[in-house]
Amino acid sequence: MLTMWLKRSFLLLGLIANTTMAVTVKDMKGDFTLEYVPQRIVALEYSFVDALAIVDISPIGIADDKDKTRILSAVRQRIAPWTSVGTRSQPSLEMIASLKPDLIIADIGRHAAVYSDLQKIAPTLMLKSRHDTYDGHLKAASLIGQVVGHDAQMQARLAQHKVTMAKISHQLPQGIEVQFGIALDDYMALHPGQSYVGTLLQSLGFKTPTIVAQESSSVHTGLEQLLANNPEYLIIGHYQQPDISTKWQQEPLWQLLQAVRNKHVYHIDNPSIWSRSRGVLAAEAIGQTLVSLLKP
Amino acid sequence: MKLPLPTYLAYSLMLVLLLVVTFLTSLFTWSSFPITFNDAVSTLIHFDEQSIAQHIIYDIRLPRALLAATVGACLAAAGVIMQGLTQNPLASPSVLGINAGAALGMATVSTISPWFGLLGTSMAAMIGGGIAWCLVMVLSSAWRVGDDNGRLVLAGVAISALCAALTKALVIMEEDQASAVLSWLAGSFANSSWQRWSMFWPIAMFGLIGCQLLTPRLNLLQLGDDNAQNLGVSLLWVKLGGSVLVLFLVGSSISVSGSIGFVGLLIPHMARLICGRDHRYFLPMAMLLGAILVVIADTLSRAIVFPLETPAGAILALIGAPFFIYLVKKRTV
Amino acid sequence: MNTKALPILVLCVLSLFVVNLMFGAVSIPIAELLDGFQPDSANYFTLHEYRLPRAIIAMLVGAMMALAGTLVQGVIRNPLASPDVLGVSHGAGLAAVVYMTVFPDADIGWLPGIALLGGLSAALILWWLCGQHSSAIKLAITGVALGALYASCVDFLMLVKPLEINNALLWLTGSLWGRGWQQLTTLLPWLVLIPLAFWLAKPLNLIVLGDESAVSLGVNAHSLRLISLATAVGLTASCVAICGPIGFLGLVAPHLTRKLVGGRHQVLLPSTMLVGATLLLLADLAARTIDPPIELSAGIMTAIIGAPYFLWLLFRTK
Q1: By the 8 A CB rule, do A93 and A116 touch?
Q2: pLDDT tens-digit series, residues C25-45
Q3: Facing residue for B310 by CB, picked from C130, C160, C165
Q4: Is the pLDDT at B85 greater than 60, yes or no?
């Protein structure tokens, strides 16, 4: 009964799309085949929206936690208005179904439990978004390009991205150790070597302090551990002011950090681009920020 | 069981020695820096401004160890008082909802942004814990004479469940803050500093001394509320005073280290096993034991996934678990 | 005995069931409801694949949790008792979190089974620790303490393995999000426990009078207690396995019902199931419609609805 319905809707959608093409890619659940160019796409993570935006596709639905500003403004400017489908952790399946999508892009880390339900609504591409590296996100973007039938455009855009990042990298000092961390009232966490920011920084020619080089999820840190990591450059994303770093500045040990002694501590007021967005446009925005901060 | 005085003194001396040893150990072990035992000792005797190792010991490790020891003592004392007041072997900050209330307070402030600046997280935690404790006491009518004790624990469970549900709701809605809230929930001494210590110790000392003064009354309460009243104990005042002390002790501890469970539940039982039921003697013993246990947990918290840290509160739960099962099995609980 | 409330409760459940089918992120007019069950209807997925199984699960889980709560309160004879005091939901939670953190790549479909196993083991541990002849209140207190222990282990795991925090947390709040026909079929075998609970109604009435009088009336208080608690454990564990721990339902529903129909278990047990079903249907409806398309967890809603009632109740029964 269900498969019949699916087939029928496929047929219908095929007519609308009026292009016959079949593309098969490997996603987290195995082979993923789509026999038409999707027109109505629902994206359940921010990084997928980024990937769609760079090839000028507007998703009709986004799991944006019901807050449009959570989408990076560079991404927002490139896409048409969308319908919110709820939170990323528990997207509303009935909302998704009501949008009648022909492709859903979901995150294996969050949506594995509802994969079969999503499949009943529309073909679902399962990718990895949370805890994936910068390279992983580029690969995911390229995959999305193939599935949405904009392969050539995506490859061109990714090539252009490489050039942009190389340019940015040229303007930055090379081989230095840079560590990014976010600060809250009573809590500081470092984004380590295998995280999105960590791998992005490495691709720009920076090094990560060895202690956190192999970690992938953010590392809660005290002053002693920050001192043990002792990065040459420290970039702090402030979710609020004043926060724990303000308190630490009173401590004698803070003065012992080589980043502090050499005046290489930098502050960012909008850390969500770094810690939440993840994607091509986010990477370019981070690169621009780095240039403005660190350009010799 | 009542210990003869010399044996009691010998036990206390042993525990003090043990505390000194664990305290010193925690000063120099498991650091990413080369810190030696000599550094630790010379920091205490003659502080050398130039040495990084000694700076770390003096500025981080020393306040950290002091805070860990004092928090341990405070929580243990709070557990003794709560168990004494309610005559309930399970009464403790975590079972009676104080920790859950504090967590809710903390989570509310750190996830709802307009509140930033108005209330610090530690202040919010203290207020939350206080409200939860008051609710539990009032709801279970613990003030009344000769009430059944199951009610207290059950009210605590209900309040804890409510606070925990709300805390989880807040954390899920604000994912960015989730790890901060969760790591606070597990309790950690990673952010210790002299500044914290200077704010903490006067309250802690006040609370600890107050507890010791309360002990004769607690002994009388053991005879049952009615008997205690006949012996001239004003139940209302003892219970009120004890509750205020508990709030001071637990609130200040929570504000420096986050939510640390199990100390208040386990330590009083351990102390009672060692030296009987006379509060005047077993309260100091409980404080010592609490201090030792938390210092050890804090040291281990740096060791387990070295060079990163695990929260001390989580370690305590794991240390406490087997002993707790033993207690239940022995039917002392 | 007051049986007048029964038909009203049935009506409540039925109408809420229909309302649950109608409303959500997208409203479906009542006229289009039946049409939506045709496979080629535009609302087929929303109605048949999503809202229908979810509403049925909410109804069953609500009823079973409430039933478990009534059994526990009947046996422990303490109005504050609930299935939570047996440590079952915390045990199930621990097992689930262990599974999610230790095997992050494993199939999520095994989760209900693992949670069930955890809940049942927690009950066995409780039984082993307390022995056969312990008083009900001791059982409750030990269960509470064990529950606290499991909860700390959960905290520890979530911090040591932060990767899966979010999924684990979501599960722990008790949610009906994404529960469908598959989960419903795993729940069905446990419905056998409901007739068993009804069979216990008469002896439970006697035990309320006290153990001695129950014994003199020919009821074996000890084995009755054991069977009742085991039934409650089975009911709770199977529900928790599907939806995660949904708090307060087992605590509040029996009280509310006792107010409505009195304390005779022959009436109390079926009514409490209806009240439980009503409450959870209401909670899930609220969770989906308060701020669509954001989905809240039903467990949080039951806590928010249930806790104030519970507090009021405590104040009143001084």
Answers
A1: no
A2: 888 888 888 888 888 888 888
A3: C160
A4: yes
What number is the ipTM of this complex?
Answer: 0.82
Angle formed by the axes of helices B150-173 and C298-316, nearest 10°: 150
Contacts of B138 in chain C (CB under 8 A): 315
The pTM (predicted TM-score) of the whole model is 0.84
- 3-state DSSP call for residue C272? helix
Measured CA to CA, the distance from residue C184 to residue B200 in angstroms comes to 53
As a whole number of angstroms, the distance between CA C170 and CA A227 comes to: 35
Enclosing H/E stretch for A247: helix A244-248
Exposure on the CB side of residue C63, measured as CA atoms within 13 A: 23
Residue A225 is encoded by which pair of tokens? 């551990």
- Measured CA angle at B312 (ends B309, B315), to 5 deg: 100
In chain C, which residue's Cα lies nearest the Cα of B182?
C159
Name residue A183's beta-bridge partners. Answer: A188, A238
Write the residue in B59, B113, B308 that is nearest to A253 by C-beta.
Answer: B59
SS3 for B265?
Answer: helix
Instruction: Provide the pLDDT confidence category of residue A16 given band limits of 50, 70 and 90.
Output: very low
Candidate from C148, C297, C315 with C-beta closest to B139: C315
Distance (Å) from the alpha carbon of C73 to chain A's nearest alpha carbon = 34
Rounded CA gap, A257 and C102, in Å? 36
C140 in contact with B, Cβ within 8 Å: yes
State how far residue B226 is from chain C, nearest Cα, in angstroms: 19
Give A30's strand partners: A27
What does the block give as tokens for B84?
């004494």
Query: In the complex, which subunits touch C with 3 or more CB pairs below 8 angstroms?
Result: A, B
* Tokens at C285, concatenated: 């409806």
Beta-carbon-side half-sphere exposure of residue B113 (alpha carbons within 13 Å): 8
Least Cα distance to C275 among C63, C58, C42, C34 occurs for C63
Distance CA A249, CA B26 (A): 25
A5/C39 CB distance under 8 A = yes
Provide the 10 A C-beta neighbour count for residue C277.
Answer: 28
Q: Which secondary structure element, helix H or strand E, spans residue B303, and what is its range?
A: helix B279-303
Q: Would you give the distance in Å from CA C115 to the centre of its chain?
A: 14
First CA to last CA across chain A, in angstroms? 65
